[in-house]
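Work Package 4 report. The design task specified in the project plan requires that, given a folded chain encoded as structure tokens, an amino acid be chosen for each position. We show below one input record used in the internal validation round.
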């Protein structure tokens, strides 16, 4: 059986990578914000 590349598969892979990227940015931002808050509250 020949593996055929469909645009839909490419789109799905792109969507997964896009969502993963956004989640990473959100998690990093939350981590940084938490560290900033901790540093600020500690004086």
């Amino acid at each position: 059986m020949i593996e055929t590349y469909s645009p839909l598969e490419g789109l799905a892979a792109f969507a997964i990578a896009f969502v993963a990227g956004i989640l990473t940015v959100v998690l990093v931002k939350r981590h940084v914000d938490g560290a900033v808050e901790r540093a600020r509250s500690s004086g």
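Helices lie at 7-41. Validation will be extended to a larger panel in the next phase.
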